[in-house]
Description:
Layout: H1 12-26, H2 28-48, E1 53-60, H3 81-88, H4 91-103, H5 110-115, E2 117-120, E3 127-134, H6 137-178
Antiparallel strand pairs: 1-3, 2-3
Helix pairs in contact: 4-6
Amino acid sequence: MTPVNRVLDDQDEPALLRDQFRQLLRYRALLAVGVVIGLLGGGYLALSGEDTYTATGEVLVRSAISDPFASGATADKGINIGSERQTAVSDTVGTLAAGALLKKGDDVAARELLAGLQVTNPPNTLTLRFAYTGATPEQSRARAEALANAYLAHRKARTEESIKNMSDGYRAQLDPLEE
Length: 179
């Protein structure tokens, strides 16, 4: 015979709940030990953790070179924010920031500096958010600021180099015409 599936009556639900509650009561010592261990573990982690501070800074990435004769495309379409984020966490930016911090008396290696850095890009924006986690609020602020400024300095140098290359190319095209 096949088992008959029956619909639970309203009176069966309290009986099922009572049975489940009785099963839990059988293991009340085990449940109590689990709760106590969880509370002790949570308390230990809360008290043994180091104090950390996070400072953030934001940089709006914009295109430095735009073609005034281009139609239909904005200057910001040429920005790949993913590659800009990778540049922000690169060793080059870390080295520039470490050099700037060394001048202010904070001797930190570029690798150690980049270990505390997190660069994110909020959705649908051309913004890079620099977040640095350090031991003190002053250290976090100074390092986040140094990393953001180093990124801007690196980007400025790349842009100036690109402009110089374009200018040299245009001058090379003009030289035959001037002779």
